[in-house]
Amino acid sequence: MNDPREKDEQLSEALHAAYPSHQPDERLHGRMVEAERSHRLQSFSRKSGFRKGWLTLVGGLALLSVVGFTAYKYFFDRPGEAAIALIPADADLVVTLDTNPSSRQVATFLKIGEALKREGILEKLDDSLTDILNQNPVAKRIRPFVSKNMALAVWMPAGGFESGPEPAGAFFVALTNAGEVDSILSDSIPSDTNQGFRVYNVDKKVYGAVIGNYLVVAPTPAVLGRINTVHSGSGESVAQLPEYQKARASLADDANLMVFVSPEAMSVMDKGGPMGMNPMAGAKWMAMGMALRDAGLEFTYQMPMNQSNMPSLKHLAAIEPMDTNVLRKLPEGAYGVIGYSQVGKYWDFFKDTASQDRSVKGEMDKGLADFEKETGLNIDKDIVPAFGGNLLLAVYPSPTMNAESVDGVFLVDDAHGANPAELADRVRVLIEKQSAKKGDGVKFVSTKQGNATIWRLDPSSKAEFVKGLNKGPDMGGFDEMPDEDWDTEEVGHEPHSAPVLTPEDKKMLEKLQAESNKPSPAMADKTIIYAQIGNSLLIASSEAMMTKALQAYEGRGSSLADDIAFSGLQGRISDRSQSLMVVSMHRIMQALRPHIEQGMAGNGINADDIVNLFGPANSALTAGGWYDGQVVVGEMFLPLDYERLVRIVGVGVRQGEKDKSQESFSIRDAPRLAPRVVKAGRLLATL
Amino acid sequence: MKTIEGSRVQVAEKMRVDNEINPELLRSYCVGEVYAYLSRRVPRKEDAEDLALEVFAAAYQAMRKAPESELRAWIFGIARRKVADYLRRRSRRREAYEANIDSVSEMATTERPDRAYLQREAVDTLRRIMDGLPEEQKEALLLQHLEDLSIVEIAVAMEKSPAAVNSLLQRARSTIFAKGKNYFTPTQEMLS
Questions:
Q1: What is the C-alpha separation between A462 and A526, in angstroms, rounded?
Q2: Looking at CA atoms only, how far is residue B1 from chain A in angstroms?
Q3: ipTM (interface predicted TM)
């Protein structure tokens, strides 16, 4: 005990006991991320040592911004996003474009830049720009100081986007030397300083100012004045809104393109929603982002869905996440698969939503009662519970190697206590009973295979089924229609008479009909076959497909989880996803290769570039989404080989050189484009 | 919760390389070591988290101006000033003491009753002795034993010379071992 080192160790131990520490809340890390972003935004928008200024822009500058995708300088600031710190808090739509790569995007941007250079696309764009700029000396002087990062803000008219007046907009282009630009403009463009800062009158209804590090273009000086107020710190910006910050946090840190829609705009757009409900109205922002990744494009979005405005949404919020292990139950080699968890709850949602309208509810109740009377099946008690687990639908190349044919597998498992196998029995009995009434005599026969009971059409039913599949569309008969059937009384349409068929036409029709009635090789092996494995249900479109599916289900063959195209799924889809989609674009393109090669022959585009445009064999389009009770969140990854894409574009550009009648675009058009952007936003919101 | 790989010193060195800040490492460091430091000194968890956020923001903003070496100590210096400001604002040092005593008592109830009693008594004694120490002696001792800071690092954090820190530590130690002679050492022996 007299050893000082030992005493020190004991003192340390005692101090640790006397002054215990504890773990912080997990959200602390996220709060720090927000603080960091906020600091970056603030520092960018205020770091300019130069004050106010402007620019008059001609088409070439906007074009420069578009070319921004080619920018690959090693500068990680995000001036497009930083512009949000200048946008007044009441903006309804905000779009940002950042073309400075993040640290993880540097290699991708370099790759794209080199490909553009190789194809000579940059050079051609540069030539076009120079031609345009030579016509405007001011723009030519400003060009070196304009970056390829930008933002757009739109304000909805008081009565909504469709109320009549055009929305107000402001277009921000980040500058690399605001002071220099201001100086050039003040030499060349008439301006006034009535608002306390310099406003340039570029054209009729086009005003500009250099505010912070940006050239801002707006339809009125008042809009510029409000932006300047925010810049000076006297007004609140969108970036300061907590709900905006939450929406931003839902997107990738380095998203290159972002779209935000305010709660007010969402509310107006949502008017006239289903049954008079406005689920999108509330306090949350809609957000959508796209980020360039090495192997493709990554999209994320969040859409507010307010349960208090639409109580039936509770059913969607209660859906369990999709269990991706279910992919182990399907065989490898699929073109694509879509999956849903607890689809029965979508019916609950639909029914509750429709029930809000008394007349709809009445009709629906009657329809359900009729259905039950006819089939003996109650949707709520018999069908919905059967779909309480995971559901997967996968499409495969035909296992019989018939290149013209595909096969499908439908798996409904017994997760969460579901029993789709029992429902299948009841449906089979119903089909047999109903067909017997009609005299068709459809029959199923069963066999046992391991733990599975397989039900398939008996030989005569199968023959009828294939015959039905092979029967093509009804091509004949219209020439036999009486003339009066061709008349129409629809307003705005001229009545027309039946087409007069020549004997040659009739011959052609007969030939077409005969062709369409020929047995299709693609349909030769198709049938209805299903297997009950415990309480789960497996349905396949052919015997061969069922054999393969059963092998995978029972662990005797490779599954989708082992499939190289589906290997990236786990990293790309959140474990909260209630639905998923994975599509092997590469596999589909390979299947289409003969057609592509035929189509590309002689036009200069290498068929290999088209076939491999969506990445190599181990890449796939993936998508997933979920509703957490407040917002619908979605994520998608589109694999893309940028170099091949640029090569294809290069061929197009070279061919297009022959046609020089390309329209030029002017940044003066930016405010005028606001309504179109609004429409795009609304389309996104609807989606 | 993200973890930091490598030793604390190595991590601190990696937080700023070639005058470029690695925000991910800085965040992890503030959520880990800095928060632990703050949670020992601030009674409410929420306040400790707010202070950790303030330390992160201040460090992120000013890190490029930080001294080349002793980055870790520099961050602790910020944390130390934040705690001082906080305590000045709240004037609730007693609350801090009581909150921590409570948590220790809760921890002790899981032990054998006799051991728990002795442990609690040892802790109470040590806390009383520590509270009786001059503030700077106490701080230096805590930084050394709880945060594993070297004497040079403590000197940076406390804006003193290493010799002065050494002197503070010597005096703190001798006071503790003298005053806790009847309680502290025997209790430790029994607990060990």
A1: 9
A2: 7
A3: 0.78
